[in-house]
């Protein structure tokens, strides 16, 4: 893979279609950002490709979203945590102090039946993040759920799974809040 020299010292966005569909250059115009998302992926996929695609960039931070495809395909919440731990291990072998932001597994209209598993996976990953240095758990749930405790329809595309531009505003706000504190 030929590296883009401007990608060095970037913030790398890594994960599934939630990342792939995020216009990070538009959302973060004052940051050097690279979108490495690919649709349908699971955490294990990001781990597999990290040595070839992510690590050569030597990013100054990693924004990570994956986990809901994992649960939808039958992986257990503890496996989501363990898979993320493995991803962190691969990254830490080369980038020991690079911050990794784990955007929690978001609830959605289409996968609402998975919400209890998502909450369990999120709690396990949050505990993992609290044990490690330079790991940040980002809770998206308050911004995604309405007062009725269900996903806000106005944040989702017609498929009820992917976010629309208004939904990405929730993610933008959380990521911007992290970088404004740095």
From TrEMBL:
Reading the lineage from the top rank, the first entry is Bacteria
Entry coiled-coil feature ranges: none
**SUPFAM superfamilies noted in UniProt:** SGNH hydrolase
What Pfam families does the annotation carry?
Lipase_GDSL_2
Tell me where in this chain the SGNH hydrolase-type esterase domain is found. 29-170
InterPro entries named in the record:
Ester_Hydrolysis_Enzymes, SGNH_hydro, SGNH_hydro_sf
> What GO MF annotations does this protein's record show?
phosphatidylcholine lysophospholipase activity
Alphabetized PANTHER family for the sequence = SGNH HYDROLASE-TYPE ESTERASE DOMAIN-CONTAINING PROTEIN, THIOESTERASE 1/PROTEASE 1/LYSOPHOSPHOLIPASE L1
* Protein name as annotated: SGNH hydrolase-type esterase domain-containing protein
Species per Swiss-Prot/TrEMBL record: Fimbriiglobus ruber
- Upper lineage: Bacteria, Pseudomonadati, Planctomycetota, Planctomycetia, Gemmatales
């Amino acid at each position: 893979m030929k590296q883009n020299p401007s990608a060095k010292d970037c913030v790398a966005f890594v994960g599934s279609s939630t990342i792939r569909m995020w216009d990070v250059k538009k959302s973060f115009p004052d940051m050097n950002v690279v979108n490495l998302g690919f649709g349908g992926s699971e955490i294990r996929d990001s781990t597999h490709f990290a040595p070839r695609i992510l690590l050569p960039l030597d990013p100054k931070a990693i924004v990570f979203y994956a986990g809901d495809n994992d649960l939808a395909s039958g992986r257990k919440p503890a496996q989501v945590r363990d898979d993320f731990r493995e991803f962190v291990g691969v990254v830490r072998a080369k980038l020991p102090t690079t911050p990794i932001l784990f955007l929690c597994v978001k609830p959605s209209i289409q996968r609402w039946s998975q919400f209890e598993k998502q909450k369990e996976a999120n709690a396990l990953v949050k505990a993992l993040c609290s044990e490690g240095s330079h790991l940040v758990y980002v809770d998206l749930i308050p911004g995604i759920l309405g007062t009725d405790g269900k996903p806000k329809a106005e944040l989702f595309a017609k498929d009820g799974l992917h976010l629309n531009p208004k939904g990405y505003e929730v993610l933008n706000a959380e990521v911007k809040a992290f970088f404004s504190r740095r």
